[in-house]
Amino acid sequence: ILNMTVGGGESRRVRCLGDSACGSGRGDFARAVALINVAQICESVGYQAFRQSALVSLADISIGYIRDLGRSACFHANSSGRTESNVNDVIRALKELIVL
Length: 100
Prior knowledge:
Histone, subunit A; BTP; Bromodomain associated domain-containing protein; Histone-fold
């Protein structure tokens, strides 16, 4: 939960649990964590205000990216005959997603 200026200038706490922007279902916790993390990143690079819709969009992008990273790491582990991913699988996945 962060205190930030959202939308038209009103200052309020950014929170997700139970908020309509979070959606429903088993992904509520992941969405809540992603919203908080994205808000913290935006604040750390100097943003003092943002629209809730932009925050939700960035959170969705980060969730999708992490999901793709996990799938790729799992693929590399399975390709190597293992059932669990290790650091090398994650590094290969990051290279595949053009981060490293």
